Amino acid sequence: MPFSLFNLKALSPEIFLVVVASLMVLFDRAIRAKDFFFWTGLFGTVLAWWLARESLGLAFGGSYLADHYGFFFKTIFLLSLFLSLLISPAYARREGFHFGEYYGLLYFAVCGMMLMASGTDLLVIYLGLELMSLSVYVLVALDWRDSRGLEGGLKYFLLGSLASAFLVMGLAFIYGQTGSLNLLEIKRQLTVSASEMAVLSGIVFFMVALGFKVAMVPFHMWAPDAYEGAPTPVTAFMSVAAKAAGFAALGRIFLLAFAPAHIFWMKLLVPLAVLTMFVGNILAVVQTNIKRLLAYSSVAHAGYVLLGIAVGTREGLSAVLLYLFVYAFMNIGAFAVVTLLQRESGAGESIFDYQGLAKLYPVPAFLMLLFMFSLTGIPPTAGFIGKFYLFRSVVHAGHPWLAVLAVLASVIAAYPYLRIVMLMYMREPERQIRPVASPSLWLALGLSAVGVILIGVYPGSLLHTVMGSVF
Amino acid sequence: MIPLNWYLYLALALFAVGLFGFVTRRNVIIVLLSIEIMLNAANVALAALGTRMQDVTGHIVVFFVIAVAAAEAAIGLSLVVLLYKRFREVHLDEVKMLKG
Known about the structure:
The structure holds 2 protein chains of 2 kinds.
Chain A: H1 12-26, H2 35-54, E1 57-59, E2 64-66, H3 68-95, H4 100-118, H5 122-140, H6 147-178, H7 183-193, H8 197-213, H9 222-229, H10 232-257, H11 262-285, H12 290-310, H13 314-341, H14 357-360, H15 362-376, H16 382-396, H17 400-426, H18 439-457, H19 460-467
Antiparallel strand pairs in A: 1-2
Helix pairs in contact in A: 1-2, 1-4, 2-3, 3-4, 3-10, 3-13, 3-18, 4-5, 4-10, 5-6, 5-10, 6-7, 6-8, 6-9, 7-10, 8-10, 9-10, 9-12, 10-12, 10-13, 11-12, 11-17, 12-13, 12-16, 12-17, 13-15, 13-16, 13-18, 13-19, 15-17, 16-17, 16-18
Chain B: H1 4-24, H2 28-52, H3 57-87
């Protein structure tokens, strides 16, 4: 491994994000026109992406590696940041958190995610995870006057800190056995001592900690509360980006460092993934609050993605990348529609508020239909492509029965999603809720819809990118 | 010289104490304390392992964990303050707007 102590160029997107975030927080008082932060946020996101693309490399003596894998995840984070920013201003203005700190915290969170995706040292990954989590805890509780937001934030904080305590303990176990925190070094050591008790407990601790972050059953209890309590743009952001960050770390740690112990952790991860799919989908069936429904659906989607990690092949990992990229478009799109219909004090959050939407407002209804079809995995949409390649990789890895279970779980998932479509298209409107849209919200909806259709119809170049992005 | 294993048993015991407190206690401040105990259990293990292996990495990680724990406590306590302002109560049982 080439030794490079201070190759700061590889870190330039993170440095840029931290500087911009600090300035946003600092100058919040001085700048009255708060839209300034919104525009800075948007342009900064594009600039950060460009920086990330230009600056691949190794930094800090091999503990930070900006490779294609990291870059693909950074693209997902920045894409979901961009889309969440677009749906933010109208909502933030209404709820009274349209200020610099909000945008600054989003930036800090993305910076932490980037460190998780590119860190090749357990300490760097831990620090990135904490930076992300601490920012997201605050974002969830930002709307603290609403007691749901406060409670969701508190629950997320308590369970998240528990998870990080598990992570540190796992780190101690692995360090004690291998004497190093570098992922490559750990892998080298584990090839001889993969069945030691300390290693196995360390792996279990890591699985618990990262399982919390990606909302794996049985560690998913925080997800519905935090998702419902958080402001909707934050929910959209954390349901995609924070989850993707968890998977980035999970993929890097388990498929690189813990690869020699694959036989052991696969036995644990496969049942948990299956459980996650089924529990998420079955609980989504009974929800009537749209944000809770989407929260349980995101638990279920985490289950599908976990399968791609659990099989432990390069193809599985590339399918994970593809799925998370697709998920960014369809999930943030769905949350953008939710934002469109939401009013003060929780009105417009019940799925019965969507009754007869197609008659009154055909365009939002059609977009919701598109995102719901995509989340279900119906062919002309991107969701189908994501599921198809994920399940195919599971079959190729030699687990056809696992793919069958996953398909069964997605059949259950069709009920909650298509129920919303049914309510929108086949019922008469009862309560009239007028969508309040801002141009930026429409832009977010348009971008997500185009993404969902384009990837669904023409997945070729994305597949090519994804295959080249796994390590 | 105290054997390494004793330190590790101590760390595991502390971790178990913290986990038990986290699960059973309903006062948010005590729950925060339990998390701190768990983090410090890991710190004991890391410091002991670093000393045994004559490797500075373990000690460095301890400092990082302490710093992160401080940041975590800051956010946790501010949430508790907000909770108290809102409900006049810091017990988890009293705060049940959202259903499981």
